[in-house]
Amino acid sequence: MARPRQFDEENAVGSATGLFWRRGYHATSVRDLGDELKLTPSSLYRTFTDKHTLFLRALDHYRATESVEARRRLDATDRPVRDVLREWMRWLVTCPADGEPGRGCFVVNTATELGTTDDQVQQRTEAAFEVTRQALRTVLAEGRDRGELSEDLDTDAAAELLFTTVLGLRVRERAGHDLQRLTVAIDLAIRGLGPTPPGPA
Q1: What confidence score (pLDDT) does residue 73 get?
Q2: What pLDDT score does 201 carry?
Q3: 193 near 149, Cβ under 8 Å?
Q4: What are the residues facing 100 on neighbouring strands?
């Protein structure tokens, strides 16, 4: 398993991301990574320094690819805000990665596994969480400004509620909970934004 001459480092990081996502940090050994990436331990260390460094790169890779798709799905430019939020939240719990449902979110999984024990990991998970919070605040503000949500809506508080709901949904998805039950929670969270304000008389 020597390092191939046409080795693609970014593809290797993508493959490592999938492995860490499925198994978690502690359950993934250097041998597992070598098998997945088709590298000898010496080649893996030479390329990525160590398992922890590769894990950080995998986390960064996941955040970059997921954030692009999430931003696209949270674009409320031409659609009602409630529809955008509902579809996005359903997408979070129904999009199997590579045909493997039940993985949850790599960032959420990492935060629950490593918690605050790893400063470099915590910085990345908190940054990812803040991106989601900010995206929610933006969507909610757009809805309020367009008259789809009450002008009295506290968008910061509403974003925190939706964000907390999302974290719970991702954990439940990983636990294999039924989509119909998760959808009930999603619909209730959306209704919690209040009724649509009446239009001008």
Answers
A1: 85
A2: 44
A3: yes
A4: 97
